[in-house]
Amino acid sequence: MIPRLLATLALLLAAAPAPAAGWGLEQLMATLADNRGGRVSFVETRYMALLDAPIESSGELVYVAPSRLERHTVKPRPETMVLDGNTLQLSREGQTHTVRLRDYPEAAALIDSIRATLAGDRAALEKTYALKLSGGAERWALDLLPADPAVARLVSRIRLAGNNGEVREVDIFQADGDRSMMRIGKPQR
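The structure corresponding to this sequence follows.
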């Protein structure tokens, strides 16, 4: 559930406006900090060692700054995941489960790192991750490499890629070898 949530959170970055000239990590973070929210469509493909074939899901992501994130999955089955402040709520098949993030410190650290990305908060990101930006404004990739051993036990790398201020791809590489690849549609404004 946590890797799927991380992909969801990171993908919501797609609603950010385009950055100015003289582009680099500081400019990317500033552009992301201007993102107040939005809606995007997504298609996620998950590759898991226990399964013979990948699992594909699709739906809509919603971000409301600074801390509300929603993932509304339509296929293969309806599911809604809402992160509001420090509460995560998952609803599917008529049942709702609620989790307090403070009860799961490693997961909270991962989620807070994604929130820091959404907020363009480089200092907060660097508390948990080493950041590596490659490419230019028209086609960039930001790798988040866990510096915190507890986080590294869950995820080996998160790669966000996009153009200008829009995140178009989020790939999460889990420490156990599983991975998810999410492709994001154009923001609905």
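The chain has one domain: 2-184.
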